[in-house]
Amino acid sequence: MKKSNSYKATVVLGISFFGLLLSYPFKDSFTGGFFTSLCSAAMVGGIADWFGVTALFRKPLGISFRTEIIPRNREKIFNEMANMVQNEFLTKERLKSKVEEYDIADLLIRYLKEHGGKQDMKEVLDKVVQNLLDEIHPQEMGVFIEKLIKDGVEKAQVSPIVVKVIAWSIEHGYDDLIIDFTCKELIRIIKRKEVHDELTMFIKRVRSEYEKHSVVRTLTDKILLDWFLSLSPANIAQLLQDKGCNLLEDKHVLRKEIRIYIENWLKKLKEDKNTQDKIEKLKVEIVKKISIHEQLAQVIKTYKEVAATHSEGVFYLIKDINQEVNNLITRFEDNVERRNQLNSKVQQKVIQWIDKEHGYIGKMVNESLNHFTNAMLIEFIESKVGNDLQMIRINGSIVGGLVGAFIFVITFWFV
């Protein structure tokens, strides 16, 4: 098909030439003159158009004047093509409107669910975490994480956090749960035999200090406490335990007192700068005493060992990772607000990039076109429109012949 019209044009030109040779001897007659004019005009038109078509790409007959039009003007052509692509086809407004039409979140979800994105995520995470574990030195990382935690805690203001946590707990009724739990634990502790023994020893020491080798005090203690009241150190200890338990079991009174104390302390913490400074100072002192780098190092070492001994890699340590990824995708898919936020942010970034880098489209087109040599450019254009260009030769012969015949008729009858 590429040579089809070229072949036809050559055939038409050949017919015109032989037609001229055959009719020229009879040019003085009407018929001979008619065909002579027709064929000569067709041949001239065909040759002229052959010259014009060839001159677009090469030097016909070796003539260099005004020929090789496309190779000579390749830079202008490329610049115009780049300008057309950048400023007519891919304008800023058109690109922006296309970006705004895309649902980026939907594309992301379909990639994750339908095109292997979930598995890609798992493999990337596996490689990243595995590489991190391979490069990590447990002791160094333990020290680093401990320092990171301490620095973060020291810089953070604890007082506002404490106020918010306590206020939220009171608002949602968690203070009652905490008080009930604390009371039960304290009752359990108070009833223990060890507490009873400690209280007994303490009371004995107090009585011993009180008596101090005084016969009168000793007799008083024995007669009054031991004989009449039957309050031996063991009995007094038991009474104290019972009293403490009864006090803790009276939840309504205790809860009211504790709540009042908490509210007063909370108000003081909100307004009193000295109390806030004390909390922050206590925080710093506690943080300085904390040493967890050894425990962190051991945890990291364990993770490395487990990951190294299982074919599933680090994901052996994470149960149901596929289900978690599915849940994450589902939550994102159902959360319209987050999807809109993602679309808005991505579109905004892309539009900013278009505003900043739009001129690069023309440069990119120009750079791509400049890879074509003259021979490649000619071959490319001829492969796309060469067959159509050959129609110019055919049309030139036909139109030239018709015009030649028309002129002969006019001149023959009217001149």
Automatic annotation (TrEMBL):
This is Uncharacterized protein. It comes from Aneurinibacillus soli. The lineage of its organism: Bacteria, Bacillati, Bacillota, Bacilli, Bacillales. It holds the Pfam family DUF445. GO terms for cellular component: plasma membrane. InterPro entries: DUF445.
